[in-house]
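Late entry, written up from scratch paper. The run itself happened at the end of the previous shift, but nothing got recorded in the book at the time, so transcribing now.
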Amino acid sequence: MSGLLAEILARKAAEVVELRKRRFGSPPARRALPLARNAGEPLRLITEIKRRSPSAGVLSTKLGVGERARVYERAGASMLSILCDEHYFDGRFEHLAEARETCALPLLCKEYVIDEVQLDAARSFGADAVLLIVRCLEPSRLRVLLEAARARELEPFVEVGTEEEARLALDAGATLVGVNARDLDTLVMDAARAARVLETLPASVVTVHLSGLSSPQTVRAVARSRAHAALIGEILMRQDDPGPLLTSLIAATRG
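Output as recorded:
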């Protein structure tokens, strides 16, 4: 691990110390994740709320978190991913609660999780699933956090980038696996690599294509792949009104 990812994790370790000082309220009722896809059904789309990123810079903030969540739901999204890292993505755990107030979609807490207290925060503010990134965790730690997430009624959404990381995820007991087309160290996109990794995952696992989708054509290609769902973020976050673009992307989800 090197570069930006190592920097993020070093900062995250310091943040965890402060997070442990906070008190969290009782979590709301958990919402089911409608991502499994049977033959003939459309690709599910997970839409993302992130106000900034290291690769894209500042994104649209014309709509508030709750307003954007409502637009995504009305256009037909299956789930919302909420960036909760503040320093690099201008997010916070409170954004989960804001989204939950305005829409009925299940919520994924997208964070660089290294400690159980982050799971407590995510669940308290309304997350139904939480991102666990294989590249950020030792195998033994991945297994512990995966079990800790389930104990808190959070679905572990395990992110991988390579065949080896996919094997580690499966060995840890992951049943929901996202394959990132973007390399977390270099930020370079490689859709072909992601497609290869997706094909190695067993049929019993719910699979998600992460990153790089920007048009109906790219959505259509993933809809013909092994993926049950795909996460779409930056292209929608560049839009002050993401509704029309999302509608066109959802129209392409049948392949």
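The chain has ten helices and ten strands.
(Scratch paper discarded after transcription.)
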